[in-house]
Amino acid sequence: MTNPDSRPLTLRDVSEASGVSEMTVSRVLRNRGDVSAATREKVLEAAKSLGYVPNKIAGALASQRVNLVAVIIPSLRNMVFPEVMSGISAVLEETDLQPVVGVTDYLPEKEERVLYEMLSWRPSGVIIAGLEHSDASRAMLKASGIPVVEIMDTDGTPVDCAVGISHRRAGRKMARAILKQGYQRIGFMGTKMPLDHRARKRFEGFTEALAKEGVEVVDQEFYSGGSALAKGREMTQAMLDRDPELDFLYYSNDMIAAGGLLHLLDAGVDVPGQVGLAGFNGVELLQGLPRQLATMDACRDEIGRTAAKIIADRTQDPNAEFERVVELAPKLSFGDTLKRR
Amino acid sequence: MTNPDSRPLTLRDVSEASGVSEMTVSRVLRNRGDVSAATREKVLEAAKSLGYVPNKIAGALASQRVNLVAVIIPSLRNMVFPEVMSGISAVLEETDLQPVVGVTDYLPEKEERVLYEMLSWRPSGVIIAGLEHSDASRAMLKASGIPVVEIMDTDGTPVDCAVGISHRRAGRKMARAILKQGYQRIGFMGTKMPLDHRARKRFEGFTEALAKEGVEVVDQEFYSGGSALAKGREMTQAMLDRDPELDFLYYSNDMIAAGGLLHLLDAGVDVPGQVGLAGFNGVELLQGLPRQLATMDACRDEIGRTAAKIIADRTQDPNAEFERVVELAPKLSFGDTLKRR
DNA sequence: CTGAAAGCGCTAACAA
DNA sequence: TTGTTAGCGCTTTCAG
């Protein structure tokens, strides 16, 4: 704030400094329409030497166009979302659209506030995590008249369109893989997050597929707060203390699974011979653990890219075709912790 | 996009629906000025039933006020920045200001673009990581006429004001602690990031303090890309192969330090007896490792809070007093990997 | 190729 | 307590 009182520069300032009409200055600055090289030169020089920064607020109001895409996610702490963001940014950087992030902390009311706030800037599109929203949020999305892509999840009905994976199917797939390896006494650990619908759906799919084979989860535990690695350790120890016969542990995310793995190795348990282990997400962060964790890739980057692509296409051409639901297939990697024989 | 062609609602629509003037509708919706309970009621009902979402673009243009704070950081992947964001959000949530994030990927040119883009929305303040910016960026910040807080680092001269820690001092402090424990043959591993000025300054402070005691870093290695944990493992193994006499390893961040730790334990090395270890950042993520890493807390949350506080105060009162440089003191934790005797 | 006029949707300032 | 008027800084549109 070296320049606290001087009025911000306007087009008019550039116009006066260059002796060119505001309109033509505006054209030059936006590379719109034909402007003679000489005039363009004059304008550019004046703008640069003054240090003019255009006022997008006025521009957006006049043109009724805002090159912003609202991206609404539950958290930045969970590495999943920064990775989705990367995919989105990578695609939007090829266009003139810009992502703007809003964080909901997994709270529907906060989601509603954030959404309202973002929509009031009249963005060109919305990318929002999950298919579960308050009625008011759904109403706002519907009324907005802009492309809306719900991401991460495809188990449900999108307001407009969706890109993600089926977490229910992912849970089932993992359950089948575990049973196939001959594991039988299975424990589950996850976050205590009634509002993390995707974790819930995975768990539901998981138990459902087990049930189909007559197997039930022997024990389960949910945590909240604290360091995931440490919690994974603690819960794993506690669960094995309660039931030393457990032969498989399924975790709702890779971090707590890693904690569990470290505990088991410390305790001298044979992994995966005596006890198998699997997490979820395929976070790159964790490559380099003593054992490579069995996990399932959530297609984060591709989800981001696909969602951004849909927004970009539909922004460019409102009649562009698009799929209502894009279901990606998560890849199961067995790592070193899911193979009995 | 269920509602693709219908014109977005305006104040006028609410005005007509409620039979109240636009101005009064505006007052109600902003809780400004005195409005009779009856009128307020009518307006609120009309607005809600129509599903009206105000147009902040028009509002901002008319009022010359934008309740946005631009937050410009190098990356969302490095957990440091989401944590700073939390601090910022926590404070701004008490005000009517909203953070908007821009990511630079550690590239000065991208920083310049992002800054330009954000300033063109005329935010109420800027929080930007680091003290090193291109001339153009510094010029824009100076000319903006709004409060600018440069965060994370205090080794240098801020454009307006700064909140952070001295990374040089942090490096020195760690060096002294290591020497004091009697370690002598010290190796260093870090990211290959010429543009990560803070890591560079830590390293400079580190070598400087060692030099003062006549000690030199015996070996050093820099990496880029890949999983930090895995890289930490590999580099550590390679370095110890090159020089088995090393007795201390200093890493530029906790993730690679954790990889190093896992390798050493696998290799049966006595930590910290035979080889000591230290990282940087104090990421909570890593609590739960077999040994608690020695590290230094970068005061991320407090940096975010303090920076946001400064912006909030100065936005409310342009003449508010504030410190030009707030240097926080990083706390050194010895954990289990930095104590010889 | 360049310019003039008329708003975009809202709010500051004033009047009633 | 409520309403009226005049812009905010730009872009659209239409005329030169």
Q: What tags apply to this protein structure?
A:
DNA-binding; 3 domains; elongated; Rossmann fold; 434 Repressor (Amino-terminal Domain); homodimer; alpha/beta; 6-stranded parallel β-sheet; 12 helices; 341 residues
Quick one: CATH superfamily of the largest domain in chain A? Response regulator
Rg calculated over all Cα atoms of chain A: 26 Å
Low-confidence stretches of chain A: none
Shape of chain A: elongated
CATH architecture of the largest domain in chain A: 3-Layer(aba) Sandwich
Measured by residues with Cβ under 8 Å of the partner chain's Cβ, the largest interface is:
A-B, 66 and 66 residues
- Helix count of chain A? 12
What is the top-level CATH class of the largest domain in chain A? Alpha Beta
- The H-and-E topology of chain A, N to C, reads as HHHHEHEHEHEEHEHEHEHEEHEE
How large is the share of residues in beta strands of chain A?
A: 15-25%
Q: Portion of residues in helices of chain A?
A: 40-55%
CATH topology of the largest domain in chain A: Rossmann fold
User: Would you report the number of β strands of chain A?
Assistant: 12
Terminal CA distance of chain A: 67 Å
In quaternary terms, these chains amount to homodimer
